[in-house]
Amino acid sequence: MEPDPPKATRRPRADSARNRERLLVAAAEVFRAGDGRASLEAVARRAGVGIGTLYRHFPTREALFEAVYRREVEQLVRLAETLAVSEPPLPALRLWLREEVRLVATKRGMLAALALAVDSGSELYAFSFRNLSHAVGTLLDRCVAAGDVRGDVGPEDLLQTLVGLCLMAREPDWESNVVRLMDVFVDGMRVGAGAPPAGGTHG
To answer: Global pTM?
Structure first.
């Protein structure tokens, strides 16, 4: 009996997955740059694929938005898991918050480019809030357990503060300013940071 012929390789499927990933990376970069007029053609060019390839993966602008945003959230979740075992508690929290600023920068660009809003009742909002709260909560719990920060600040407080700072910022270098302000906020969470000097008086 002759051996069965070799099965066809899965190269087309591998190429498709690779093109999809390139499109997601390119779209995040385009939107993060803050160009509200960015077109899907610009995303395809940056990814090095044709516009037809983009539409095969993402039939609508909304589909591309959601895929990019979900990918960025999932990356932040994985980053929190990595930092929790590779960095001391407080530096891990600071590093994660800086990456969260990048996510908000991407989201701001997408909202401008796609004229969309992720309202608080949407499934995408619930997905992101649930996953990001859990991720930063894990890092925050480590800080509290280590005695680095006070225990009366929750993950929702951190996320709301960061997003609020990002949405209010308008200057060109707003990302670096938000990172600086979040460092100040975290410093204020340090155990003993709010205590008056020994022997000091108020007023």
So the answer is: 0.77
